[in-house]
Each structure stands twice: as structure tokens, then as C-alpha cells.
Amino acid sequence: MTAVQSRVSPDVLVKIFTTAAKIKMYDETYRATMRAGKIGGMYYSARGQEIIPSSFSAVLEPSDYVLTIYRGIHDQIAKGVPLNTLTAEFFGRATGSCKGKGGPMHVTDVASGLILTTGVVGSGLPIGVGVALSAKMRKSGQVAIVNFGDGASNIGAFHEALNMAALWELPVVFVCQNNQYAEYTKYSLGMSVDQISKRGAAYTMRSIHVDGNDPEAMYEAAKTAVDAARAGEGPTLIEAMTYRFYGHVMGDMMKYMPDDELEAARAADPVLKLRADLIAAGTLTDEQVTQIEAGLRTEIDEAFEYAMSSPLPDASDATTDVYAEGIAL
Amino acid sequence: MTAVQSRVSPDVLVKIFTTAAKIKMYDETYRATMRAGKIGGMYYSARGQEIIPSSFSAVLEPSDYVLTIYRGIHDQIAKGVPLNTLTAEFFGRATGSCKGKGGPMHVTDVASGLILTTGVVGSGLPIGVGVALSAKMRKSGQVAIVNFGDGASNIGAFHEALNMAALWELPVVFVCQNNQYAEYTKYSLGMSVDQISKRGAAYTMRSIHVDGNDPEAMYEAAKTAVDAARAGEGPTLIEAMTYRFYGHVMGDMMKYMPDDELEAARAADPVLKLRADLIAAGTLTDEQVTQIEAGLRTEIDEAFEYAMSSPLPDASDATTDVYAEGIAL
Amino acid sequence: MTAQSEVIDPEVKSERILTQIQAINEALDIALGLDETVFELGEDIQDPGGGGFGVHKGLSTKYGLDRVRPTPITEQAIMGAAIGAAITGMRPIPEIMLMNFMAVCQDQLINHAAKLRYMSGGQTHVPVTVRTTTGAGGGFGAQHSDMLEGPLVHTPGLKVVIPSTPADAKGLLLTSIFDDDPVVFIEMHHLYFSISGHVPEGDYRIPLGKARLAREGSDVTLISWGRQVHDCMAVADTLAADGINAEVLDLRSLVPLDTEAMLASVAKTRRVVIVHEAVRRNGFGAELAATINEELFGQLAAPVRRVAAANTPVPYSAPLEAAYMPSKADIEATVRGLF
Amino acid sequence: MTAQSEVIDPEVKSERILTQIQAINEALDIALGLDETVFELGEDIQDPGGGGFGVHKGLSTKYGLDRVRPTPITEQAIMGAAIGAAITGMRPIPEIMLMNFMAVCQDQLINHAAKLRYMSGGQTHVPVTVRTTTGAGGGFGAQHSDMLEGPLVHTPGLKVVIPSTPADAKGLLLTSIFDDDPVVFIEMHHLYFSISGHVPEGDYRIPLGKARLAREGSDVTLISWGRQVHDCMAVADTLAADGINAEVLDLRSLVPLDTEAMLASVAKTRRVVIVHEAVRRNGFGAELAATINEELFGQLAAPVRRVAAANTPVPYSAPLEAAYMPSKADIEATVRGLF
Ligand SMILES: Cc1ncc(C[n+]2csc(CCOP(=O)(O)OP(=O)(O)O)c2C)c(N)n1
Ligand SMILES: Cc1ncc(C[n+]2csc(CCOP(=O)(O)OP(=O)(O)O)c2C)c(N)n1
Ligand SMILES: [Mg+2]
Ligand SMILES: [Mg+2]
Questions:
Q1: Is the pLDDT at C54 greater than 50, yes or no?
Q2: In this model, does residue B2 exceed pLDDT 50?
Q3: Is D8 a residue whose pLDDT tops 70?
Q4: pLDDT band at C12, cuts 50/70/90?
Q5: Which residue of chain A has the CA closest to B165?
Q6: What is the ipTM of this complex?
């Protein structure tokens, strides 16, 4: 386990804040749009988990790869998937990143390096290993970041992926976003060990347990892991502690989450805290923050408008993209 | 990790020796019968690994359960599967434990507690968890022993099974018989950790690393684990170091195994060593040993004769035992 | 069958109207109450939620977390634990949250559960009822919607049940749980709340391998299961207005299959359309069509037709998903094409 | 297709006689030599053994352990790593040692490899060729012998190839490797050493979706793939002595399927027997029978018959296994029954 404590530069913190604020505002807009009945479908809010991918985005190159899961909106935004096509994909529009075929659980945006979103718990880990293997074989210098939840650390694919990545010393970072619940079950009820990061020892893997809501610690963890991967020093397992503010899926009544726990977590909102800290430290003025937020507001509103006004796909599109060439289905 | 050092009683050692000698002689007879062209098929010799299940057999009750793999002849004999029906199953006879339907890779003998033999690496572990769960739910006091190889510790089922067993504190012992090879590959080439027993920590599981060829150490490990399981103190992972004397499968040219390594292992034959030690310690006389071996010889010869003279199944039997009742296939 | 209580005739109409999810909950409750060896295991099945859809509501409170046993996300261990418990005297009811996740534990199901009775020469058997849910049309996308009964039917040793009505769901589930073979019990979540029906109280069992004649007719046979039975019924009503009298056969269980009822109906009507939600290529419709053609060669007035999903993954966007699914319009047009 | 070299016409007879395993080894060698993005990964594939059957002999020595990459026993990671590499520019050739073990990594194959092109709206694709081997008749028992092409054919997005001759094995494997879709390439190990044949040198490609007319005939069509093609040929010889002139069609690839060649042949002969080693219920024979009946309704002189394995797990003991397998005698009797 690596101790993470050193300070990070104000520039980096502003970057992290800007990304995190974007995720937060986007999420708020998405939920509001749903509540207003303007769109339906499933939505897995990542409110509360913004700092984790925002910290990575301050470290990663555009050409690096990120893999995520159904709860992936924060990872997708942080990696730079354009909000217009991203939103259009969530809305099932022809203009979506995946032409409306994939949907929220299966967003891919090759141009920004968001290479995979999977809906099957744990399945992204072996694929991330392959992405990193490819980078290593192609000597491209790219790094793969594989995001997953606390619940995913109990499934077989986790074990196989970590073993292979360690064995082959691949440039991959396994990021367990421990938001303390797998659906409606507290993570500790499914886990035979108190910290997921301790499982790294089973693979002699560099492992970091970090407060994923603390931007300084999280940035350092991300940087340590990505630098090591880039330097050919193999994979890292990061367990980033965080919390989901809105339960598993939109509509979750959250009865299984103790009220005080939820309230405490929301009271410690990491995005608001970082905002306040930056102002308090004099890194940003109130005005600057307001300006950043106004810019984000415009971008987000435009994205929702773009998506809302985009056409639905044509039914005839249902049978394309199954195979490379037009073989008879 | 538990240190294992205390002495075991001469009675127990004689018991272990008798079982181990039976396995060794049986194996020699089997290979000789194959070499003589009297039977064909695949045979996965367990020569060299005898001490592990023989030690367990000195600890287990008849009602306890054992699960094993394609390389399971030693486990099957040690658990008391009758040699007649066991051999008949290997020979594909109608009188076999499984009527010739299962074969060597799928031996079950409910009466002796040999509840499962699987040919899919790692798949016995989750099933062993279920066997232990059943024992716990039925409050039967039974213990489940799940045998598997070093190679199996890299597969997902291993991880899922150990997590569940630890979480539910089940009466199960996971016995990794580390014979140092998975098929034609040295185990260290597939593993990101130097000792498989270290993986127990990922589940906060009692873990023992032991010389599986040392009957005293192995007996103590088995006893520690089985006693704990029986006492409701949950599962144990045992990594028992050993060696395969005849490669992966009958016919293996063993080119990938260094000559000196193989020679050294055979020179330290654990069954011969225990035999010599018992005589040297005065626990058994030469004559007593000879007598034990003569008894085993008779039993084994009878089994091979029984199997050889047993009829093959009738073709009409191919379609029974698919479902409980005679539903149309 | 270890536990048997007084069995109620499901044909006797009950006054109670239940949803399918209520009926399934009731069957689980009855089975847990009847036999100590019955237990459930699966992800998030405990109260207060009682499962993602609420199938288990109240059961962990009533029977405890030992018998309504929440698990980590660990499908191989869920299925393996069920098998191990089953071969040593228990009757586990594992839940695989969605059918696509059965791919994660396919080895346990097809290499072990299905084969253990055979491989052991009948010494052990696997009285496991694997419950799962699935179905397209809900905008869940390609990894949460597949109907995968076809590959299961191709696995000797498994039984496969797909109920269409609340009363059937209850009676078939109880039979499955007390059946001595591994049963995959496929619940189409579209039916959980959308269709209500009369459900008798208490314990009753509907035998596996007996199709339900949902509608009698003389001109064409519509063969289906699960959700699409209701589509067939609706189309039959439409056709009746035009004087086409469709018989609708609900197979209920695919293995064992009520071949007799199927052939009798088709021999009578001489026209048949098989309707299923799974993709067409090598879906179970292919087996049925092949069998009907073999058995009734020369007796049919028109080719055996299949209406099924397109040979593509399940798309996300609504118009694409609608194009993917077999629709009532497809069924109707196909039937009309036979005349 | 990224790499293409001068392609040799496979119809041009070569003087060289190779076994199927030599032909496959040669195809892998050529592909590895041709394109740096091609690499193999799997258990025990390194020299000196070069795999359980020796398929990879010499390749790790020639191309290094980076490109002929041995793995732990970890099928999910093998398949996942192949997929991840494929969507980022590589052409991996994962080996699943025996087909039954594909059940262990089924999720990666059917929920990911098959669907990623579609789910990503064509942004990524999965040029993976999953090689595996299987087949009954060798006394390997229920967990090491299954033919499982049926469920794969039911998975949109996958291509499925099963070669019968050494020349086909080489030409189809090269095409599969350089195909931009995931291909499951099923080698029946019975054919590895038992059948030799002329194999052209160098690089040549046999297109997927083109059946091979193995024998021309006029009275009945035998449709098959893999090992059973040879059984059909033998039966055709026997029948010829009695004046029954059988046409034998080797499908080579099941997806894409050469429907045209199949229907043309059956339209001509008006009698057809489909032969496969997989179990009968919902095997791919069902789909073929259903399609032929739909397309050639009223034109057939006899019902479409299927000869396939019994609906049981694969038994161990020789007489049971023989009873399980579709045999030449079964094929012959079935054909004679059509006249
Ligand atoms: C293999 C598999 N099993 C079950 C599910 C259903 N499921 C979806 S999300 C989820 C909980 C995942 O929890 P966690 O990994 O902690 O991620 P989080 O949702 O908290 O981000 C479950 C069980 C699934 N998608 N895949
Ligand atoms: C899931 C799976 N993958 C691959 C195989 C093929 N296989 C059979 S034995 C074996 C090696 C197993 O090694 P280990 O676990 O060390 O057991 P040992 O044979 O040494 O006793 C392999 C890879 C298999 N049976 N199952
Ligand atoms: Mg979580
Ligand atoms: Mg080994």
C-alpha cells in the first residue's frame, strides 16, 4: 500500500473542479429532465463520485483509454466524450455516439478514448487487460483505466484480470470506485475482507486505498498509478472510497441506506467542498467560479437541446452494424 | 499462516502409509495395465501426491465429503471408493461406480462420500461451497474437502468460491495440491504471487502452506483445517507442495520438466520415504510392511480382475439417467 | 418429490386476481413453508427490496437470511453453491438476476447441473430451480434483454419452463421446485405487472410437459410461450373478425415438450405459425418447425412459418427495438400470408 | 482486412499431402508472418509441446512468447484480453483448449465479442478468431466432447466455421483471422490426424459463406460439416452401389450460411438428410430443416430428416458413446427410408 500525501498544484485542482462541476451539473440536469417527464429510461446517477474520474482526467492523455460501467456518466464526461453525442446516445437518438444502438450502458466513443462501457458487472476488467496488452504490444505508450464498483470485486473476472495484468506487467489501472453499495446491498455484506485494495496482494500488485472524494489524495493516487503504468512498471489497483448520493438507479427509494449515513455523505459533497476550498484558498474568486459554472451551464443546456431535437434512428438501421459487410442476417 | 510442527502418533502414520501405499500400488498397476495394451483411454497419474489425501483420510469421517478433479485417483482411493467399482468405472464397465457413464474424470461414489469429480478446472470449488453450505444448513456436522491444482488458483471460480465460503463461514477445506505444473506449464509462469496460500488473505481466510509430501506436517494441516471446519470456525485454504512423477497425462514425454528436478522429486518419493521412516523408527517391522503390501496387492489385483471381467454397458443404457423420470428425450 | 401437500386443481377458477409477480412470490412462499430443504440464494433478494423487481418481498423477513440468502455478485458461486447443496439433499432456488448473466455461470449450468445425474450414473441429481428474468422491449439494451432459451433446450439434462399467466407461473414454479431435475424457470419481466389473472390459493402444481390450449380454433395454430402468447391471443381476436379462427397453444415448458398436443393441433388446422421473442436463427422455433415438418409431411396446407426477433443484438433506441421485436403486426401478416 | 498477400487458388491441386493439424499450423504461421497485429494466446501453446495436440508447434520458437503467448488457466481473461486487444487494433487468436470450456467465458463471447460492433454503432469491431477443438468418440466423457455450434449460431454477431478437410482448414482459418468480425473456428480433433489431403503452399483464402460441393449427385442431398462430411461421403459411396446417387454438401461456415447452394441442391434432389454430431434437439440441423421446408414447401419428395447425436450428455464407455454418436449406419438407414 502506498501512502499518498503530497500537495498538488492549484492548476490541477482547478482542472479537477471544472470536470467535477461539469459532471455534477450534468447529472442534476439529467435527473431534472427525467423528473419533468421529458425522457424515460434507466439512469444510474454518479453524483458523489465526481472527484475520482476528474482526478484521472487531470493525469491522462487524450489517447489513453478508459473503460467504465452502466454507472459511467462521470467517467464518460471526464474522458471528454462530447456532451452532444453522449446525451443523444442516452436519449436513443440517431446522432448519439453509438447511433442509439448502445444506449447509456454501452457508450463507446473511440475519438475520446472511452473505449468500452459494459453492463455486465466485472466484465470490463479482462477487456481492459486486453486494451493494455494491445498498447504494450503496439508500444504506443497508452494507459488503460478500468473503472468498476465495489461489488465487482467479488466476481471471477476481477481475479482473472488482475492476475493476468500483474503477470504480464501491463499498463493498466484498476479503479474500484467503492461507493459502499452494490445495488441494494452494503458492500461489506458481500465481501470477506475489509478493504478491496488488500486483494492486490494476491497478485503482488501495487495497491492504493484512498479517499476518492479528496481531490489531492485522489490525484496523487491516479498520478502514481498512471506514471507507473506509463513507465512500464505494471498495473495498480486503486480502491477509491466514495458514496452514491441517489442510490442504485433513478427511482431507488434508498430505504436500505441509513438516513444519517446518506445525509452525512451529502453534507460532505466533494464537489461543493472543493469549490469552497478553492475559493477559501484564494485559488479562484467567487466570480471565476461563477464564470466556470456559467460556461458549463451553456454547454450542458446545448447538449440537452441537441439531443432532444435530434431525430430518432430509422427502423431500417436496426439491422446494420451486426457484421462488417452486408452478409445476410 | 499457521505454523505446523507438532508430532503425530505412530498409529496415524501407519494409517497414512497404508493409504499412500495403496494409491501408489494401484497407480503402478494401472500404468502397467495400460502399457501392456490391456486398456486404453486417458490416465492422469497422481504418483507423488499420495501423502496429501492419505493424511486427510486419517482425519475425515466416512460421512464427510470429498470433491476432486480428473487427476483424482488418489483422492478417490483415499476416501474409500471401493476399488472394484472404481476400476470398473475407469474401464467403462456396467459395474462401474457410475455405470460406465462418467468415466475417470467424473467419478462419484455417494456411499463413500466422494461426491464429485470434475474435468473443468476450478469448477469444483463453487460446488464444494454448496456441499458445505448444505452440511451447515442441515446441521449434519459434515465437512467438505475440495481438491484442486495449482493451475486452478488462477481461474475465476476459485475467487468466487473462497469469498463465499469465508463470508458464510462454511465447513470447507480448499486443498490446493501444488504439483508445480498445470499441464505443460510451470505454475510460477501462470501466477502473479509466489505462494498460492497468500491468496487466502484476500478473503481473510485461514491459510496454510505445507509440504504435502511430509506426512506429519500434512496431517497437522489437515487436522487443523478439518477441526476448525467441524467446530464452526469456517474454511481453510491449504497449499500442499508436491510433485507429479509422470507428467500431465499418460504418454506425456515430460520434455518441459527439467530432468534434475524430476529425478530429485522421484528420489524423494514420499511413500518410500514414509515406509523407510516407519521401519527405521521401529513403528513397523519389515515383515509388517510386507504384509500390508501383500494385502493391498491382493485387493488391487482383485479389483483389476473384477473390472476386466465385468461386462460393458448395453447400448440401450445410453439414454437413461438423463432425467428423473422417463420423459421423452 | 420430497414434499407434497394437498394439491388444488388450477382449473378451478379463483376469485383472486394477482399479478404474475405476486403469483411467483406466493409460490416461493409456499415452497419455503412446505419443505425445510428449500432455500433461495441470489443478489439483493433480501428485504426491504426483496429483489430488483420485488419478487421476494417479505420472504427474508418471514424465513430469515439463511433461507432467503443474499449473495455477493458472484454468479458462478451462486450456481455452484446451488448445485453442491442440491446433490447433498437440498432444493435450492438460485436467482440469476437477468438472463444474460447466466453466461457468466454457463459452465456450472451446462457442464455440471445438466450432466451430473448422467455422469454419476444416477447416484446424484440436481433438484435446482434456476429462476431468472429477461425480455426485450424495455430499453435495457443488448446485455440485459436476450431470450436465451434456445441454447438451454439444446442442453440435455435441463428442463426449461416459461410461464405466460400468473396462475401458470405459480403452478409451474411449484412443480419445478419439487421436480428432481434442474429446471431453468424463465420469467419475462414484461409480464410481472402487465398481465393480471385469477390465481388459486394454496398449493397446486401444473405438470411440466403439458401445453395449455389458450384458445381453440380450426384454421391455423399459433404456437408460443411467455409474453408472445398474449400477442398471439390479441392477433387471434383480430383475425376472428375476418373469419380466421386461430388456435393458440401455450407450450409452458419447452423441455419436456408436449409434442403430442402440438402435432394434434397442427394436424387439425394444417397451418401453423410459431412465435417467439428470441432471435430467429436457431431459436426453438426452428426445432418445432423441423419436428412438425417431419411428423406431418404432406399434411400441411402451407409452410410452417416462424415469427421471431431479428438476427441482431437487442438495440437500445425505441424504434430500433420495436423493429427488432416480433410484433403483433408481424404475426398477423404472417398468418394472413398462409391463406 | 488489413493484410493481404498474393492469394493462391485452393482449387489448384497441390502435390503436398498434409494432416489437418499441419494445415492449421501452417495457416497460423502464415498469419503471424504476414501481419504484426496477429498474435496467439492460450494455455500451454508454447514449445516444446506447442499445445495439447501440437497445433502451435514451432510457432513460439519462431515468433516469440509475446506473439505466441501462453496464459494461465483463465478463460475469461483470455477471451477478454483478446477482445480488448481487438478493439484497439490487434488481431488476436485466442485458443480455448476444448469447446466445453467456452462455457467458462461465455459472457465475454456472447455479451461482448458478438455485440460490440453493434453496441458501439460500428465504432469498434472485434477481429478475433477464437480457435477451439472438440468432438465425441474419443472416450473423453461428458465435459470434454460436446459440439456446441448451435448456441453460437443463435448469437448474432458471431461467425461460425467448422472445416472438414486440411485444405479447407488452412484456407478458412486464414480468412477467419483476417476477417473483421469475431469468428469461432471449431476444429474437430478427430480430424487432426485421421484425414490427410492436398494442401496448397503459401497464402490462400477460402471465403466464408461458400459451401463446398463435396460430391455431386441427383437423388438426395446430404448436408453436413466437419467430421460428419466424411461419414456422408462414405455413405454416398455405399449408396452409389445400389444406384442411389447422393450429393454431399459441406457447409464449411454455418454463419454466414450458403443458403443458396443448399436450396439449389435440395430443389434438384428433392430429398435431404442433415447430419451433425451435436445433439439433435435444437441443433443447427433444426434451423436448416426449418429453412428448407419454408423455402421449398411442396417441392420435396420426402420429409427433411436429421441424423444427430442422442439428446443426452456424452457418455464415457465405448458402447454408450457409439450409441450416442450419429453413425454411418444411421445416415444410410435414414437415406434409404426416404425412398
Ligand atoms: C454479472 C452481473 N451480475 C449482476 C448484475 C446486476 N447488477 C447491476 S449493477 C449491480 C451492482 C453493482 O455494484 P457495484 O459493482 O458496487 O457498482 P455500483 O453500481 O455501485 O457502481 C448488480 C448486481 C450485472 N449487471 N452483472
Ligand atoms: C476451465 C478449463 N480450462 C482448461 C482445461 C484443460 N486442462 C486440463 S488439466 C489442466 C491443467 C490443470 O493444472 P492444475 O490445476 O495444476 O492441476 P493438475 O493437473 O496439476 O493436477 C488444464 C489446463 C480444463 N480442464 N478446464
Ligand atoms: Mg458500488
Ligand atoms: Mg498442477
A1: yes
A2: no
A3: no
A4: low
A5: A192
A6: 0.97
Of A115, C112, B187, A257, the C-alpha closest to D146 is: C112
Q: Is C83 in Cβ contact with B129 (below 8 Å)?
A: no
Nearest CA to ligand 1 atom 5: A121
- Å between B192 CA and nearest CA of chain D: 10
* Catalytic site positions of D: 144
- Using one digit for the tens of pLDDT, what is the confidence trace for C255-282? 999 999 999 999 999 999 999 999 999 9
Give the start-end residues of each E strand in C52-182. 68-71, 91-96, 129-134, 159-161
Whose atoms come closest to the Cα of B122: which ligand?
A: 2
Q: What is the mean pLDDT of chain C?
A: 96
> Dmax over Cα atoms in chain D, in whole Å?
59
Distance CA D18, CA D24 (A): 10
pTM of the model as a whole:
0.97
pLDDT in tens, A168-222: 999 999 999 999 999 999 999 999 999 999 999 999 999 999 999 999 999 999 9
d(CA C91, CA C2) in angstroms, rounded, equals 10
Looking at residue A109, what DSSP letter applies?
B
- Phi then psi for A17, rounded to 5 degrees? -60, -45
Which pLDDT band, with edges at 50, 70 and 90, does A294 fall under? very high
CA–CA gap between residue A20 and residue B59 (Å, rounded): 59
For an interface test with A, the pick among B121, B129, B159 (most A C-beta atoms closer than 10 Å) comes out as B159
Domains of chain D in start order, with CATH, are 17-198 (3.40.50.970), 212-336 (3.40.50.920)
Which of A63, A93, A131 to probe the D interface (max D CBs under 10 A)?
A131
> In this predicted structure, what is the pLDDT of residue D11?
60
Confidence of residue D204 (pLDDT cuts 50, 70, 90): very high
C-alpha cell at B187: 505454475
Helix axes B286-309, B10-35, angle to 10 degrees: 40
Distance CA D56, CA D48 (A): 9
Residue ranges covered by each domain of chain B: 10-82+109-306
Find how far residue B276's CA is from the centre of its chain.
23
- Provide φ and ψ at C288, rounded to 5°: -65, -45
Fold of A10-82+109-306: Rossmann fold (3.40.50)
Q: Determine the 3-state secondary structure of B1 from DSSP.
A: coil
Residues of B whose CB is below 8 A from C2: none
Note whether C256 contacts B138, CB cutoff 8 Å.
no
Q: CB of C140 closer than 6 A to ligand 1?
A: no
Ligand 2 site, residue D73, Cβ cutoff 6 A: yes
Residues of B in contact with C209 (CB under 8 A): 327
pLDDT in tens, A82-138: 999 999 999 999 999 999 999 999 999 999 999 999 999 999 999 999 999 999 999
Q: Is A182 in the pocket of ligand 1 (CB under 6 A)?
A: yes
Chains that contact C by 3+ CB pairs under 8 Å? A, B, D
Please count the other Cβ atoms lying within 10 Å of the Cβ belonging to residue A84. Answer: 20
Q: Is the CB of A152 under 6 A from ligand 1?
A: yes
Q: Is A181 in the pocket of ligand 1 (CB under 6 A)?
A: yes
* Residue A1: pLDDT band with limits 50, 70, 90: very low
A326: contact with C, CB 8 A cutoff: no
Cα–Cα distance between D16 and D29 in angstroms, integer?
17
In D104-202, at which residue ranges do the beta strands (DSSP E only) sit? Answer: 129-134, 159-161, 183-188, 196-198
- Calculate the CA A225 to chain-centre distance: 16
Cα angle C277, C278, C282 (rounded to 5 degrees) comes to 135
- Identify the closest residue of chain D to A105 by CA–CA distance: D119
Residues with CB under 5 A from ligand 3 (ion): A 149-150, 179, 182
Give me the amino acid identity at D170: K
Q: Would you call A35 an interface residue with chain C, using a CB distance cutoff of 8 Å?
A: no
